[in-house]
Amino acid sequence: MFVALDARDERIQIETHEQAVRLRTAGTPYRCPACREELIIRNGRVLPAHFAHRSGSDCVVGEPESRDHLLGKHLLAEWARAAGWQVDFEVYFSGIKQRADLVLRRPGTVHALEFQCAPLSGQRLAERTAGYAQVGVTVQWLLGPRYFADHPTAVQGKFETWGPERGRELRFVDPRRRRMWAWWGITGTGMQVEELAPYPRPAVWRPRGVSLAQEASRVVQALAYRDKAAVAVQSMCYERGVNLGGCPVVVHRCLTAVAGLTDKEWLVRVRWLLRFWRERVWSVTASKQWWCDYVEPARVPLLGQRSVAEVAATAWLDVLIGEGYLVREGNTLRWIRWPRWYADVDRKLGAINRGEY
Ligand SMILES: [Zn+2]
């Protein structure tokens, strides 16, 4: 930690190795703002100078703090100051009992940064984010090394945010290589990868190379492993005289891979087809509303149920309209032709391989 209380209970923020030497020489006791235990000053070569509890402390405030977390906070402060922000470390908001890693201030703006290196449950993420909203502070979650990957999975997915310009977005900080980057415009087919610091560069598209045949095989796998949700949809399919294994190829196209759906996205799409199969005309609103039932809000605290439903529903309607199955007139939808169901997965894979679907 970079913040302690001095003998007069004033907040002391440790910033440099030189300052650490001065504080040590002064010999004043420094106490933890949370548990008020006396802290030691660590001033080695590898890490930024910082305060630490003595070993055996059971203080709950983020101890022991990882090397990555200390380095990352220091780095973020450096970048934020260079961008003209006033920066404070480890600011405690007593009203919500939360401590932000960093708080950035400009006249009229207070912004919290959380550099997340440890695992965090969706529920805690939701609580902490709601806490900041309660005190009128916007928060940006930045993900540390544990979350690095080539493509997003559920591990990162719960930290996704959404904006009108950049769509779904995640941000990462590598404290050792001193880099920050963003993934944005995230969909199941790829995403933009943009270096933000120290040298901003234009975004580069990173495709996600998943073939339709691979996607179609997931249906077979789900059934082979007796996946509960897939088995339930399979029996709905039988009632309609179709086979889940032969479900239309369009359910695998342009998947969003958005986090927070209760079932696999292709499976929710099949449910949607079974639901709207016989409708003559219906509304875009009803179609989007339908998706809300298949979102688990707790798993996407930053996006929220409505945004996830919107993302998944819009992509699905776009692909159905784009491939000529549906037509949209204002707020109404109407079938032009049914997507083709195959008798079984082999016939479907055959059609995919021949490019005839
Ligand atoms: Zn403490």
TrEMBL record:
Residues covered by the Competence protein CoiA nuclease-like domain: 65-150
Full protein name: Competence protein
Lineage top rank: taxon: Bacteria
Organism: Lacticaseibacillus pantheris DSM 15945 = JCM 12539 = NBRC 106106
Domain Competence protein CoiA-like N-terminal: 16-60
Classification via InterPro entries: CoiA-like_N (IPR057253), CoiA_nuc (IPR010330)
Pfam families per record: CoiA_N, CoiA_nuc
